[in-house]
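User: Hello! My lab partner asked me to get a predicted holo structure for this protein. The small molecule is zinc ion, SMILES included with the sequence. Please write out the structure tokens.
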Amino acid sequence: MSLYSSIKRLLVGILFLISSVYAQQIRMNIKVDATDTPKHLLHTVESIETIGGPVTLYFPKWIPGYHDPTGPVVDMAGLFIKADGKTIHWRRDPVVMNAIHCDVPEKTKTLDVNFDFILPPEIPGPANAAASTAKLLILEWNHVLLYPEEIKPDSITVSTEITLPDGWKYFTALRQNKKLGNNIFFKPVSLTQLIDSPLLTGEYTRQINITPPSGVPHFLDLVSDDPATLAMNENKITDYKNLVTEANALFGTHHYNHYDFLCTLSDNIYHDGLEHHQSSDDRMPERTFVDNTIFLDNASLLAHEFTHSWNGKFRRPIGLATGNYSSPMKGNLLWVYEGLTQYLGKVLAARSGLYTQEQYRNNLANVAAFMDHRPSLSWRPLQDAADEAQLLYYTRDDYDSWRGSVDFYSLGDLIWLDVDATIRQLTNNKKSLDDFCKIFYGGENNGPEVNPYEFEDVVNTLDKVVKYDWNDFFVKKLNSLSHHAPLAGIEKSGWELVYKDEPNEMQKVNEEVSQSINLFYSIGFIVDFDGKVEDVLKGSPADKGGISPGINIVAVNGRKFSREIIHEELKSAKDNPTPIEFIIANGDFYSIIKVKYYGGEKYPYLERDNSMPDLLTSIISPLTYKIR
Ligand SMILES: [Zn+2]
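Assistant: Hello! Below are the structure tokens for the protein in complex with zinc ion.
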């Protein structure tokens, strides 16, 4: 044996030792008692395999999809830990609040962990995503478990059991092993897959089968506070079936074994969506599927979250693919993760029939106008919005247009349209972003898996579709400052942004649902139906006249403020040389101010530019069926 081969053996031995510690496999068992959901408490009992010695148990903090460190450890109460049946001492890390250090005697075989998770009784902010009412619960497993921090979540196999309140049904991407009364036992999965598979349960439920001809199971799972709101009509069901076939036609493949849209319908929860590999957690107003105005406001939500199964879950920016729940994430590529999803989600909603083509264009006009009145773009480049994402999801409304926010969604919507239109222009509409999607998100379906990427991978894949200086294209979009939105995609696709004096349909929907009036394009503020000013556009007539966010408008031209009055007074201000007079309350102080605005009402629309081919209509036309 040569010296070389014995050194090699030694190195291989050391590497094996290191990798076997790192790749340590353990089992955990979690029993959740959800019968006290109406009392806003979940009880959890865990047993965790161990070999003894000091252990740090960790309450998940960085949850994929949230893009921020908001795992609500503060809602954990009544924590008791036992080692082989004996209560042991634990101490929270003085710096990392989610880490619980435990003195575990050597040779201990099992740690038993008990605690309750407090469900917020009122509508929580997005920072605390737990959601329940007396009639339903959307359970995120990361709220009801601690895990040994030093072990990779992929290497932890978890058996899960849940006890449901009497008469409640459940939906989840997890597969059931057995059911004994109200106790449901699930097939073991990795901790990663468990946290990626929330469970929706409630008293009033409906499951709608939207499985396409391929036979891969897809379901709409509805759970509502009110059984009457489960009555989704056949047209909508058809549109959601179209969504499944259109998404699969766009990407050419998928990376799940089955898919559940978990739809929570309640006015007593925070409304949002969270993506997963084989399901999406879609929280909407109670009447979403029975009231067309509310539906239109949410028409692209399921399409957005579904798109994430490819863009965000399967392909994930390397900075967001940490492989655990404790390492900080980097949001630098969120303009791809969220921006492209925002674009594709709405395109798919239009291709599926969830939006009419006109509704899609109205929505795009609203996004374009909103971003074109965004002074934050003059100091905060798109890259910075992505970099600061972990703080920007929870900013207040006041001076939102000046501070800026998670603008990679709306800017992404506009920029990826530009990418799509550019590819179509360069190839005579023979190639498109669809071709990028087939390459970038393609490959064999092995069920849920993560394939991380970096900026260069995006550029190189686009280059395979059509040669262009994509690097320069994105670098400029990411780093440049401007007083205007990137509208080139709208122009290249044969349309232009114009303003008219009547709100478009989607603007009316937004006004109705948000209970606020967007007057950014005329006098320059957003005000709610009670007269509270949410935001004021810097440099606008309102700003110059002295209106600021947070004040209350008491009266307009001598009449008590109302939604109707503000619309009427703006209309009659057109070409009227008298300034508009406001009585305002700024905290406890009242004053009269005059705003010099003479332009009437203004709302955005897209208008066809006949000198250019209509690429936008090609983009939003279905791939697989004829429009009804
Ligand atoms: Zn998203």
